[in-house]
Task: inverse folding
């Protein structure tokens, strides 16, 4: 397996949201519009990369008995620093994100990556895997946020795409898209699309294998 | 040393925790000054907003600043003091400082503050065509975060002009329903104290607003944001009670009455 695939695999084929169904809570809460989703994505990528790298560096040192609590300490510290940086340089967006940056600590993706990957792989690979998972999470977040912002407010990044009725245009915005629950439907559709795509490609590769083994049988 | 031996566990735990705390505290101490500097003009606008003058975009008309007279109130004595520089005074810097706060009795601590600042800034808003309004900062613990708000009072120091939150981090979509403008507007004209001078203001989920005598003091609760609304109600009761601005407002009213005579 080449190194690059550690980075790309979590984006579609092993996406944390659509395949592992992790980190849904924040994916529902902050996808109302694109800008906060972008900042949140960045924060998650940074935290995942950092925690993956550091935890993997320390994996030989950390005793098993206090493994989880030390992992949480390191992740939480990274999250607090990230939160402070957002508060300083993007105070308006930090007001929209509120507790959700802090709640990256409890985002299952982060601890999941720490436990299943960083503990058993080298720092370099863990960094790649962390970044990959972060990008995979961001990919879905940005997709959902874009859809919700266009349908819900007729804008993308606050630029008017569909002029709304209240602004003198023709588009009546779908208020449902402003509610967190609407993200369930969009994520559901994305999961459907990805699963059926990967099912199809699995079937094809399986039938290819079968054909090969049949041919082998014949030649024997 | 073996990987799982107790001594090694202790050493690893302490050093990781030490490094983490170093990282967090240095980040905070580097970034805090930048954050406070950014907040100063915003803060002023919030005060003006609470008095019904500021602009919703976050940038206030500079000339309006002249109408604001900042004073420092010593809560223990309920007296205005002048030995502290009131320009840009931000009580939020002193919330956790043991030297600048006094502990609150458990049973009085409705807003769950733990400690109360010795000094709070108050703001008189002067304008040419009406008598001075008073803007008071109040804060308390919400569901998740510390909620900070300004409340402005008419010249009678009893009727609410406006209630405005400016710093909180409650659950998006649930607790932050308290930011709903329609709800905040419903505070306007409500009164804090009854004729006897007792605190009568309350937030209620019961619809007995037909009783006009009661509805003067009553704001409707918000369905689905009960915890946060309860916290808001508690912080009003705390700050306008005996341990907050209550004694100061009573004193000011008495002085005003004397002056009228």
Result:
């Amino acid at each position: 397996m080449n190194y690059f695939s550690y980075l790309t695999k979590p984006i579609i084929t092993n996406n944390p949201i659509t395949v592992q169904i992790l980190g849904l809570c924040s994916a529902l809460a902050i996808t109302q519009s694109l800008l906060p989703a972008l900042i949140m994505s960045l924060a998650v990528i940074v935290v995942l990369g950092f925690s993956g790298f550091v935890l993997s560096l320390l994996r030989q040192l950390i005793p098993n008995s206090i493994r989880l609590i030390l992992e949480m300490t390191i992740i939480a510290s990274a999250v607090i620093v990230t939160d402070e940086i957002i508060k300083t340089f993007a105070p308006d967006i930090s007001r929209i994100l509120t507790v959700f940056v802090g709640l990256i600590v409890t985002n299952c993706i982060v601890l999941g990556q720490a436990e299943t990957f960083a503990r058993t792989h080298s720092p370099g690979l863990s960094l790649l895997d962390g970044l990959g998972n972060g990008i995979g999470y961001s990919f879905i977040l940005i997709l959902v946020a874009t859809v919700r912002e266009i349908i819900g407010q007729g804008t993308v990044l606050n630029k008017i795409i569909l002029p709304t009725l209240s602004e003198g245009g023709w588009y009546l915005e779908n208020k449902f898209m402003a509610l967190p629950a609407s993200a369930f439907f969009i994520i559901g559709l994305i999961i459907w699309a990805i699963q059926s795509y990967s099912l199809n490609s699995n079937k094809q590769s399986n039938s290819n294998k079968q054909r090969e083994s049949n041919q082998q049988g014949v030649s024997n | 040393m073996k990987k799982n031996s107790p001594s090694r566990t202790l050493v690893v735990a302490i050093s990781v925790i030490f490094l983490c705390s170093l990282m967090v505290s240095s980040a905070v101490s580097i970034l805090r000054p930048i954050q406070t500097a950014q907040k100063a003009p915003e803060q002023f606008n919030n005060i003006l907003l609470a008095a019904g003058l500021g602009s919703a975009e976050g940038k206030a008309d500079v000339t309006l600043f002249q109408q604001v007279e900042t004073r420092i109130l010593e809560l223990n004595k309920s007296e205005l003091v002048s030995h502290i520089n009131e320009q840009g005074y931000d009580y939020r810097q002193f919330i956790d400082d043991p030297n600048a706060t006094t502990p609150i009795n458990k049973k009085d601590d409705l807003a769950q503050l733990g400690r109360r600042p010795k000094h709070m800034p108050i703001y008189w808003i002067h304008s040419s065509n009406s008598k001075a309004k008073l803007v008071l900062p109040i804060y308390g613990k919400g569901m998740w975060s510390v909620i900070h708000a300004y409340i402005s009072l008419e010249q009678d120091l009893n009727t609410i002009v406006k209630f405005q939150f400016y710093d909180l981090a409650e659950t998006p979509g649930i607790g932050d329903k308290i930011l709903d403008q329609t709800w905040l507007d419903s505070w306007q004209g409500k009164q804090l104290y009854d004729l006897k001078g007792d605190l009568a203001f309350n937030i209620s989920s019961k619809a007995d607003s037909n009783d006009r005598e009661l509805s003067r003091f009553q704001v409707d609760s918000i369905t689905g944001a009960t915890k946060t609304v309860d916290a808001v109600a508690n912080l009003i009761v705390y700050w306008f009670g005996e341990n907050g601005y209550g004694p100061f407002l009573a004193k000011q009213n008495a002085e005003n009455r004397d002056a009228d005579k």
In short: The CA atoms of residues 153 and 173 of chain A lie 6 Å apart. The first strand of chain A starts at residue 155 and ends at 156.
